Every structure is written in structure tokens, then in C-alpha cells.
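Bug report (template v2)

What were you trying to do?
Predict the complex of my protein with glutamic acid.

What happened?
Run completed; filing so the output is reviewed.

Input:
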Amino acid sequence: MIDFSKPRTRFAPSPTGYMHVGNLRTALYAYLASKSEGKDGTFILRVEDTDQERFVEGAMDVIYATLKEAGLNWDEGPDVGGDYGPYIQSDRKEIYREYAQKLIEQNDAYYCFCDKERLEEVKLVQKAAGALPKYDRHCLHLSKEEIEENLKNGVPYVIRQRIPDEGTVTFHDEIYGDIVVPCDTLDDQVLLKQDGFPTYNFANVIDDHLMGITTVIRGTEYLSSSPKYNLLYKAFGWEVPKYLHCPPVMKDATQKLSKRNGDASYQDLRAKGYLTEAILNYIALLGWSPKGENENTEIMTLEEMTRLFSIYDVSKSPAIFDINKLNYINGEYLRRMSPEKFLQEALPWIKKTVKREDIDFLTLAKALQPRCEVLGDIPEQVDFIDSMPDYDEALYTSKKMKTNPEVALEALKAMKPVLQSLTSFDAESLHDALFKLIEEKGVKNGIILWPLRVALSGKQFTPGGGIELADILGREETLKRIDMAINKLSK
Ligand code: GLU
């Protein structure tokens, strides 16, 4: 009997060189299902490399690195071993052959020697007749002698599953409920290919059983094949594990996220400046959310998710990958960091456009932090620091601030001696001096602060206002830029 109180779940990627957010979500749910609610379950990594044509060199490294970065540590797998190995399917070829043989002996599978051309023809005829494309069972009726003769002559063959002629097969999915399928709609699918490798359809059943998997968690693309898997479990007399087919992650209302469409992979998102924790948090919500008293909790660490996750709360509806929501969550993670930690994350991005070393990086980080959603936005936000960009005088015009180039020129001329006379050039002194000037002049803050911001950055949107920018740039650079602005506006 399967002991569901000790969950054993697996993530079973094919090494195709890419981990899109849907794959990572499946891995996360499988991980959470094994560890949630205080269960001390086992999370297994199994490499499904039986499709040699799709194999991409180095792909396993991407998978290992992604899972490790995300903190989805596996208890059993190719590199760490375990009692149920090998964990790479290409190392298990003999096991599949043995079980396929067993099915042949039981009459639940048969050799098929049909070549590609014949199979194509059958398909075309069926298509023309409007029939379901299915293998026509030509080889099911071969005599024992014919089979032996073919094998002796080395005729290439596959082994096919023999689907019962009649009746129905029912299977249960934890999300989708009971699904009943008539056997005559199912194809005698290939279990073992000509190259001796098993198909996914065969290997997943053998491995999930032999590895003691209690809960199979995978994408809905496998939902329609699950009745055939159940027939295999039945043929072997094995208990069927729990199934959880996760809803697809969609790009929009009609298209699934996919590698072919160039949709975001975990690596792409990291390269754009999203944090691993935020990506993980966001993808957890693509099809699941905590229930009960934690219903409104959105920001969760892996540990918190582990506490709150239940496979029964996974939704049936497709989830749409919403970059704005990811941006929001990423921003939340950034804002919750200490300024020092934020600086550590932001520095590589700042350095993409800032080459000078004489600015106050921590002050810059503090100015960026409240306004930053994605680290990848930083280089553009700080591109004015090394040198002033060319800018249009019109930037000094602001209806809201009630200023224009003329008013700004006066303001800059007035603030120059004030700033020059400061003995210490920090945020507090700058603030006090400039607000004193504002008071003396009896003007609105914007009359002084807006021109300062434009003069120091040449931009409308900046990390922080004029005072913060002056603090970041320091005395010399600030005064230099004010002079440049006065010159520009005096022409
Ligand atoms: N190897 C399959 C894939 O990468 C995984 C299917 C499963 O989890 O059973 O799509």
C-alpha cells in the first residue's frame, strides 16, 4: 500500500536546456507537496533523457543550478544518490526492457515491426476517412513464428501497449476529479522505441512505481495520457499514485508559455534583474494561493510557502503570466531589504553605467530602493551620474512646480552661493540650507528643488529629488553642474 503520510514526490525534467517558469512551478509544487504541513517527505530529482533527439548538452547544469538557487534541494537524485537509483533514465534502459518483456508475456504489449512509411500511410487513410489516428494493430495479429523470424532477422521493432478492446478506464486527478475514457479512443502507444529507449509514456509509470512516488505532480499536457498510464499500472498489478496535473501557465488568454515562443525562462528573468525569491514567490501564485486565515498573504518565503501549501488548494484554471504582478512582488522584496543588502544587489547594475568611484553609493542605493521594481531598470536610472546628458531646456518648465527656464535660472543663481558656503555637504545640511533659502524667498519648494534636480540630472525622473542627487554627486560635481546649467540658461 502506498503510504501517503510519507510523501515522495519527484521533479522529472527533460534536459532540453531551458527552464521556463512553468517547469520551475512544477518543481516548486512537487517540492512543497513533499515538505508542506510539517511532512518530512522526500523530494526526488529524476532526469528524463530518453528522447535522445531533444537532448541538449549542458542542460542538466542549468536544471541543477536553477533548483539550487531556488532552494529546492532534492533528497535523492543523480548527484546525491538514494536507494531507488539510478535517477537518470538512460541508465535504466535494462529495467524498462525487462518490464516491457513482462507485458509481452502477459499479452498486455506486443512487438510491432511496421516501418515509418506504413504508419504514415495508415494515418493518411484514417485522416481521409475522418477517423481517429490510431495504430491499426497490424502486428497484433502476427503469429509467434512470424515474430520470431523477424527478431532473428534483426527487423527493427517497437513494443506497443495493448489497450483493451472494450470498456472504459477511469482515473482520478486531485484537481480535475474523476475522468472516464472509453478504451476504444486510446491508441496502442509505443512503450519501447526502436533505439531501445522507452517512451516517456512507459518510463514514467515504471519509474514512479519503482521509486515509490506517492504523488505525481506534472503539467496538464499529460492529463490526456493518464488513462493509458493507469492501464499500465493495472497490467502490472500496481497501486496508482495520486495525480496532480497543474494548470498551464499562459502567456495570454490563448497561448501557453513556451520555449518556442521565446517566453521567459528562469534564467531570462534573473538576467533582467528579478530576484530568485521573488520569481519563486510569484510562480507559486500561478495556480495556488493560501487558504483560510492566510488567504490574503501574497509575499511568502519558501519556508512560509512550505508551511501553507496544500495540493488541494491548487486551482483548475489556467494561470496567466502577469509581468506587472511579478514586478510588484519583486519590488516588495527589494523594499524589504536593508539598504546595505539592497546596495549589494544593486551595485552590479549601477556599475553597468556608473564607472566613477567618487560618489556615495549607499546614498544612491537609498534613493533607488523605494523606486525600484526590477534591478534591470537601474542602469538607465543612473546614466546621468558619470556625465550630464544633453537635455532640453523645456525640462525646466513645470506647470505643477510653477517654474520655467527663466525662473529656474534665478533659482540656480540664488542657490549657488548657498551651496558653496556649506561646510559639510550632506543631505541634512543641504536640506537645511535650501529650505532656509526657500523660506527667505517666500517661494514654493519646487521653485528651488525642481531646477536643482534638472540641473544635476538632465532628466525628468530621477532616483531621489534635487537634495538627494546633490548628496550623491558631492560638492564639486554639484557645483560644476549648477554652473553648466546657469550657462545653458543664460544663452
Ligand atoms: N520529462 C517530462 C517533461 O520534462 C516531465 C513529465 C513528468 O513530470 O512526469 O516534460
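What did the reviewer find?
The pocket of glutamic acid is lined by residues 12-14, 48, 200, 204, 218 (CB under 6 Å). The two ends are 88 Å apart (CA to CA).
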